[in-house]
Amino acid sequence: MKKIVVVQLVLFVITALTVVPYGIYYIVGPTGVGDRINLHATVDNALGVGEGTVVTYRGVQAGMVTGIGFDPETRRARLDFALDGDTRIPVDSYAKITQGTMAGMLNVDIFPRVDHGPYLTDGDEITMPAEEQPTQISETLARTADLLETIDPAVISTVGQELGSAFEGLGPDLARLVTDADRISAQLAEDAPALAELLDRAAGLTGTMAENSTEFVDGMASARTVAESLQANEDRIASMMATGPDAMRRADEAIGANQESFSAVLANLGAVGPVISDRSAALRTGLDAIPRGLAALESIVHGDRADFALIATQGPACYYDNPRRALGDTSPIEPNLDYYCPPGQDLEQRGSRNAPRPNDLGLGGTTPGTVIGPPVVADPILIPSGTELLYFWKSLLEGNTHGTR
Where is the Mammalian cell entry C-terminal domain (predicted)? Predict the structure, then answer.
């Protein structure tokens, strides 16, 4: 045998071993060359479905119809399916007859309701609900014919005549309408980026309003309350609007006459503004503490008199000479654990820097603070008021007078 014949024979065998299995796989599908799952279902009408109809799962071919017949128990059509063995179909799934191509070829498509197990096994039944099945073309044509029979040709003729009369002479207007629509379309296309940005912002605003729906409702309720108050005071508002222009005129005259004074005041405010802004935190604290202090002053009132006591000294205090921070600087400060004020009788320790050291650090490596101030007074001297001095003087005079008697 010639060498060329041997080479051709070997190539033929290799080609056959490659093409024949692929052809079998292409013709019979995956169920013909491996494990398969056999399922069955019953349907009211299986018209158009036969052996070899493709079965898909989520739109992907997974097997085919292997048998079709009549089930005497359910009196419905029975379909047998052979699916690829590795197809995992949840038990909660249903089958539906669908149109696979534009030519009218039908498929049986399986739709899962969940994406987890348990899964169908060999011999199980899959449901084919009647409400999920498509309407047959014959039934559709019959319904269409019934609908057309209910339409009176004379009515259609009348409608046509009326439409013709309505649009008669409107050709130029319709042409302008089409032209304007074309211009509007071109303008919309030109402004598409701006419109897209506007829609994005509107979506963001809508989302923000949804997230703050409670505050939005409260705001609308407050707005309604304000509107009701304005309506209730309509007469007063009308009077104010009537007298307001004259008052504004007089105010304008006063401002014009004192223009130089107002200029000086504004200039001074420009110098005072930075000082106040640097001390905004202190001002907020003062505005919060002053009302409480005024309320506390009520505690010194006894009847028609007020008791005042001046304490001249409270004893020595321990402090560290630390640099002062700039006004308005509220940033946190790292505490210095080397600072320590030794305890002493009547010794006041002030400031966070003089806080006691943690117990596990002891006193090693500490820097004692400086003690200043006179010792505490054992019996503070109370300065009497003028009324108390007058009362004391009268008591002395009355005592002396009684003594001479």
Answer: 120-312
